[in-house]
Write a structure and sequence with these properties.
Elements lengths: L14 H5 L2 H4 L6 H4 L5 E6 L4 H15 L4 E7 L13 H18 L7 E8 L8 H9 L6 E6 L6 H17 L3 E4 L3 H4 L12 E5 L2 H11 L3 H4 L13 H6 L4 E5 L1
Parallel strand pairs: 1-2, 1-4, 2-3, 4-5
Antiparallel strand pairs: 6-7
Helix pairs in contact: 4-9, 5-9, 6-7
Length: 254
């Protein structure tokens, strides 16, 4: 069984073990032109502020360099991430986390003129209650030439999975492609794990420059990557978890 990783400490599988994975090593690369047919718009649907950078920080840089239109959708404001913290209250997080994402996008080199950003405003940890509503929300903004990117339907976080299901329904209705991206799966899965849909997996290669900008962007998420000494709480995203999300590729299920 994969765990539901809401508010759990992500020790997980070491990066070294992933680097030795036979299955991961066999995954074929894919280029931007294969992910998005000519004339497409990319729609990145992030359950929480930071998921768009953790999963697609490299992809967004490539989109910007080729002037490919981008619509970014933040499903929640991520207000439930720091349970037990007296400093990172839901009220403070509702302001801070979207601001952290905005700073991260700047660090990626994205100009505000290069993307549109929608804040859907659904409650953190409760996206499953609003799946049908989220599907209709997405459909109201989708275009026939869209390609959607979101978290994997079996990622191990309830919001990630509910967001994916809403995106699947929207894509089926609009008949547009969907690309799913594992985020928490890096932490709970085994490097040879048969639960990962390896047959659908592809690697989007990132050069050193793109990796460096993504790494710098992730550091903008102060509420997630730093401990809270006042409440004696570890980081929501410990260093080992962040490390696994900074590989020389982004894994996508197509």
């Amino acid at each position: 069984m994969k765990p539901n990783l809401i508010n759990s400490q992500l020790i997980g599988t070491p990066l070294q073990a992933w680097n030795q994975s036979r299955r991961l090593g066999d995954v074929q690369p894919i280029g931007l032109d294969a992910l998005l047919p000519a004339g497409s718009r990319a729609v990145i649907v992030a359950p929480h502020p930071d998921d768009e950078v953790l999963g697609c920080g490299g992809l967004m840089q490539l989109l910007a360099r080729q002037n490919i239109p981008l619509l970014l959708v933040s499903v929640t404001a991520g207000t439930g991430s720091n349970m037990g913290s007296h400093y990172w209250t839901p009220q403070r997080l509702s302001i801070a986390r979207p601001l952290e994402s905005a700073q991260a996008l700047r660090r990626l080199g994205l100009d505000q003129s290069q993307y549109k950003w929608l804040h859907a405003g659904y409650p953190d940890t409760q996206v499953h209650v609003y799946e049908d509503e989220l599907t209709q929300f997405l459909l109201s903004y989708m275009l026939p030439n869209d390609v959607l990117f979101t978290t994997w339907r079996n990622d191990g976080h309830s919001d990630h999975e509910a967001t994916a299901r809403a995106c699947i329904a929207a894509c089926e209705h609009a008949q547009v492609p969907l690309r799913e991206i594992p985020i928490w799966a890096w932490h709970w899965a085994d490097p040879e794990d048969a639960r990962i849909p390896w047959e659908r997996a592809r690697k989007l290669p990132l050069d050193i420059f793109t990796q460096a900008r993504k790494r710098h962007a992730i550091q903008a998420f102060a509420s997630q990557i730093h401990a809270d000494p006042q409440a004696d709480l570890p980081p929501v995203l410990p260093a080992c978890a962040v490390e696994r999300l900074q590989q020389p590729f982004e894994l996508m299920f197509v």
